[in-house]
Design a protein that fits this description.
Helix content: 40-55%
Strand order of the largest sheet: 2-1-3-4
Shape: elongated
Order of helices and strands: EHHEHEHEHH
Distance between the termini: 30 Å
Strand content: 5-15%
Largest sheet: 4 strands, parallel
Structural class: alpha/beta
Length: 159
C-alpha cells in the first residue's frame, strides 16, 4: 500500500491468467504514480470462486462488487481507476454500462475484444474450427454449464 487516501487502481487480468502475471509491469507504474493497487482474481481463476469463465458477461457484475469492497475498505471518496487487460479489459468496459459510483474516475482497457461471440469465433478460426461451429458449441456450453447467453449483453446481475 502506498498511502491512505491515495488513488486506487483495481486490476482485472486476462483469460486464464492472473493479476500477478498480467500486472507485473503495471504494478510498478501504479506505485510510481503513488496509487494503491488491488489485483483481482476474476471468476473461475486463481483463488476466486466459480467454475465457469463467462468472458465478461457475469464478471462485469463482479467489478461492481470489487468497487463496493474498495469503497468500504478505503473510503467512499477514494478515487478508483479500473484497469483491465484482454478479457479483463472487456470486463471493465462492459462494467462501464453499469451504475458505477462517482469515485470511479476512469477505465484503462488494454487489448479488449469487442464481444464474447467475436473472440470465440476468432479462437475457433485459429483452432481450425469453423466460426459457426465454435459459436454454436460455445453458446450451448454457456447455456448448459454456465447458465448464461454469450450473445446477451444486457442482463440483471447473476451470482
Amino acid at each position: 500500500m502506498c498511502a491512505d487516501g491515495a488513488p486506487l487502481d483495481i486490476a482485472f487480468h486476462g483469460y486464464r491468467s492472473s493479476g500477478l502475471t498480467d500486472f507485473c509491469g503495471g504494478a510498478q507504474i501504479s506505485r510510481e504514480l503513488g496509487h494503491n493497487l488491488l489485483l483481482v482474481d476474476q471468476r473461475a481463476h486463481g483463488k476466486s470462486q466459480g467454475r465457469t469463465i463467462t468472458f465478461g458477461i457475469k464478471e462485469r457484475f463482479d467489478v461492481l462488487s470489487w468497487v463496493e469492497y474498495a469503497r468500504q475498505r478505503f473510503g467512499p471518496d477514494t478515487k478508483i481507476l479500473l484497469y483491465g487487460i484482454s478479457m479483463g479489459a472487456s470486463t471493465v468496459l462492459m462494467a462501464s454500462e453499469l451504475p458505477l459510483p462517482e469515485n470511479v474516475k476512469g477505465i484503462v482497457a488494454d487489448c479488449p475484444y469487442s464481444s464474447p461471440t467475436k473472440i470465440i469465433r476468432s479462437v475457433g478460426r485459429k483452432m481450425r474450427i469453423p466460426a459457426s461451429v465454435a459459436t454454436v458449441f460455445s453458446w450451448v456450453g454457456a447455456k448448459v454449464y454456465g447458465g448464461f447467453d454469450i450473445g446477451k449483453r444486457k442482463s440483471k446481475p447473476i451470482v
